[in-house]
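pipeline: protein-struct stage 2 | run 1193 | Precorrin-6A synthase [deacetylating]
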Amino acid sequence: MIDLVLVGIGTGNPEHLTLQAVRELNAADLILIPRKGDDKADLAELRRAICARVLTNPAIRIAEFDMPRRDSADPHYRRGVTHWHDAIAYAWTEAIHANLPRGGTVALLVWGDPALYDSTLRIAAQLNPVPNSVRSIPGIMSLNMLAAAHAIALNDIGAPFLVTTGRQLRDHGWPPGTDTIVVMLDGDCSFQHIPADAITIHWGAYVGMPEQILLSGPLAQTGPRIIATRAEARARHGWIMDIYLLRRHAASVTEDR
């Protein structure tokens, strides 16, 4: 039997790991690091750098495994994701069996927080055999880092804000009931599909990392700069993680109502 620990590592900056995260990593018997291909080799290297920085227990094993890729050509999004998760669960099972055949504690380093727009907990529930226990260690979420980097508050006084995805913004437009939204998992710059009048955007890529890029301003003027900057950064690094906040102001709110 194994105990599985999912450790939130925030945006990958070792200084942002919680003391609990460091303690849990040092208590593991095995740490698994996914490899996502040459174009995302930096992601595995960042995980290795975190381990080198915080591990003090020389008995811990670190093993790498090849991460399955999602079939983006599948026209049925949920079906494609389900098949992908099945493949990841199988890869985890094989890596654990190969490196910890007698059982023990296995840790995985999860970007951000395992509870927010991350599928690690769902994949853990598909493991066979079922782990003896699954623990989730919170990490600093990217929306917290975005707000800190821009020195802004996520919400207006007494007002709600909504966290959503690029797909939802593109397909359904601005969510009702709020004037502030935080958009994650947006590979298509979906802010292009909403009216830009009286909207401010605060955008960040690689937030909290040495490569951090920040842009903010009126959406109509800043949106095209973000699109160009994002494409250039992704081409340079082979991958990109970004997030943005959109806030509507009085003019657009009045018009909508």
